[in-house]
Amino acid sequence: MLSFATLNPSTPFNHTPSYTVCRILNRNSLLPSTFSLPPKSNPYCSSSTDRPLRVRAIDAVQLFDYESKLAKEFTISQRLKIAIVGFGNFGQFLAATLVRQGHTVLAHSRSDHSAAAKKLGVLFFQNPDDLCEEHPEVILLCSSIISTERVLLTIPLQRLKRSTLFVDVLSVKEFPKKLLLELLPSDFDVLCTHPMFGPESARDGWTGLPFVFEKVRILDEEHRVSRCEKFLNVFAKEGCRMVEMSCEDHDRYAAGSQFITHTVGRILEGLMLESTPINTKGYESLLGLVENTAGDSFDLYYGLFMFNKNSLEMLEKLDLAFEDLRKQLIARLHHVVRNQLMEDGERLQQLDGSNSHALIRRARNGSALLYSRSNDVTLLSSSISNNSSPSDENTKLKIAIVGFGNFGQFLAKTIVSQGHQVLAYSRTDYSDVARELGVSYFSNADDLCEQHPEVILLCTSILSTVKVLKSLPFQRLKRSTLFVDVLSVKEFPRNLFLQHLPPDFDVLCTHPMFGPESGKNGWKNLPLVYDKVRIGNEESRILRCCQFLDIFASEGCRMVEMSCAEHDWYAAGSQFVTHTTGRFLEKLGLETTPINTKGYETLLSLVENTVEDSFDLYYGLFLYNLNAMEQLERFDLAFESLKKQLFGRLHSIYRKHLFENEEQILALPERSTPPQKSEDSDASSPLSKTVDTK
């Protein structure tokens, strides 16, 4: 506000007003509507008529305006004094955000975290009495599940205000709810929460991450209700997805999501998985899952098992699902071997003894193709000279896709888009699909081969590859034809090609480690593994091989040249493990929940991707990869080891409890009046002798 003296034109100024005052006085909004300043009243404000103005007082300049004052008062009113009990990694993780939001944060822990607290701007107290005498509005329990009861019993509740709000952040909810209601005075408020994230999963912020809570006991007073909302707003302001849910519902959902996620992560950790040169997206997600779960202590995982009544049931379901998957694989294997034995048995009657023994050995091993090797093949690797610049016509290939199912169509779409001529043949009639893609379709294999394609691209399933290859009329092809496979195993087709193809044919084994789902947004950085098994020395053959590989390279694939044997060794440890995990999780019938974690979302996505592939593909990975059986056994051992670790811990706690009770019982006679000694009692009571000797 401004106060003005009566304006008197004849009264001169005693001093010259400052520039700032002049600027203020020239703001018409500050002047009465009946008053106007003379245009010239001093050297800084000039006018044609000099009419001096005498300023008596200025009281409008304040430190802040009314609105900012209200805003500041509101901000202060939203701040809480929060005491974190249990100042380990998770407690410090939450404290960083609480301090940043302007709350006063105190902390207490058995271990000395004073240095970490000072760095975060937190007041650390070694003594819980000192902490409670500060009268925090909120006690935030960040202890482990196992130590929660002991920690709660050590807090001097009598030193707190009777209206204190207790909050827990445990990964199970029914247990702390019952504990807090049982041990806390009825005047204390209780809020059970579960931030379903941690330092690792929330390193990029809390936006969209679930925060589950139940207002277990909030007394009906305005300041108590307001305080509860202020605390919940800590997480809402950071963008968390706020989920109000009963503790019972939480534990039911969590057993089917969080406990499953941690269990799978722990099993895979037992396999000691490592990154490979041919990681798939699915395998990358499993490596991330292992990294996240291994970062948590075993105490956390044991707490999820011990203090959630639904967890044991889920563990049993996991065990049954894995056992069912293994039985399915073995039964399929038994069926194949049995058929092979019967077929070979019919041939034995027509062969001499020595040949029959060879066939018996072959039958017992399941398939001679799996173990066959060619010692007369030299692997050739060469590249086109930088000086060669073939015309555009010469860079286009005529490629015949044999097996025009989903994957064959998926590859054909890109090959056609690059200008190559594509032919197709399949047992099923895909002529309509081929026409839409711009592919020439043949229902007869002879007709296809008489077109003299430069490349035969086998896109059949693993199980049908032998039958399809044997059905092709090789005599109708050019003798220099290049045969390429795209199977998920590599030693099997390599040996098959070398055994059945004429020696003039070239052989290139490849594995695009992606499919219609993982490659729907392009092939950039997705791995294409290849082995130039047999490529002739002629320049035309070398050029043709390079032109075919360039189909994938030009789409941005990560080109990985690797022997077939090396591929299968890596694939058993990555691709087969990925499919096995997805397959046995599928048998659990996992469903999305209102409280999905990032890890659980990973598992749901894995299941979705693997079940899109046929069981034949998975069985082929098992049957035709020499390393798959070993990986299945390792998976089983890792699961058994984890169960032993869980049940061993449970057994240890139970034994400890039993022996503590036994010691208490044995100690009772010492606290009672000792019995009178007699010769009879000394002779007949070993317990008396034991007590006497003590």
Automatic annotation (TrEMBL):
<dbReference type="InterPro" id="IPR003099">
    <property type="entry name" value="Prephen_DH"/>
</dbReference>
<dbReference type="GO" id="GO:0033730">
    <property type="term" value="F:arogenate dehydrogenase (NADP+) activity"/>
</dbReference>
<dbReference type="InterPro" id="IPR059064">
    <property type="entry name" value="TYRAAT2_C"/>
</dbReference>
<dbReference type="InterPro" id="IPR046826">
    <property type="entry name" value="PDH_N"/>
</dbReference>
<dbReference type="GO" id="GO:0070403">
    <property type="term" value="F:NAD+ binding"/>
</dbReference>
<feature type="domain" description="Prephenate/arogenate dehydrogenase">
    <location>
        <begin position="80"/>
        <end position="359"/>
    </location>
</feature>
<dbReference type="InterPro" id="IPR045011">
    <property type="entry name" value="TYRAAT1/2"/>
</dbReference>
<dbReference type="GO" id="GO:0004665">
    <property type="term" value="F:prephenate dehydrogenase (NADP+) activity"/>
</dbReference>
<feature type="region of interest" description="Disordered">
    <location>
        <begin position="666"/>
        <end position="694"/>
    </location>
</feature>
<protein>
    <recommendedName>
        <fullName>Prephenate/arogenate dehydrogenase domain-containing protein</fullName>
    </recommendedName>
</protein>
<feature type="compositionally biased region" description="Polar residues">
    <location>
        <begin position="683"/>
        <end position="694"/>
    </location>
</feature>
<dbReference type="InterPro" id="IPR036291">
    <property type="entry name" value="NAD(P)-bd_dom_sf"/>
</dbReference>
<keyword id="KW-0560">Oxidoreductase</keyword>
<dbReference type="GO" id="GO:0008977">
    <property type="term" value="F:prephenate dehydrogenase (NAD+) activity"/>
</dbReference>
<dbReference type="Pfam" id="PF26213">
    <property type="entry name" value="TYRAAT1_C"/>
</dbReference>
<dbReference type="Pfam" id="PF03807">
    <property type="entry name" value="F420_oxidored"/>
</dbReference>
<dbReference type="GO" id="GO:0006571">
    <property type="term" value="P:tyrosine biosynthetic process"/>
</dbReference>
<feature type="domain" description="Prephenate/arogenate dehydrogenase">
    <location>
        <begin position="397"/>
        <end position="676"/>
    </location>
</feature>
<dbReference type="InterPro" id="IPR028939">
    <property type="entry name" value="P5C_Rdtase_cat_N"/>
</dbReference>
<dbReference type="Pfam" id="PF02153">
    <property type="entry name" value="PDH_N"/>
</dbReference>
<dbReference type="InterPro" id="IPR008927">
    <property type="entry name" value="6-PGluconate_DH-like_C_sf"/>
</dbReference>
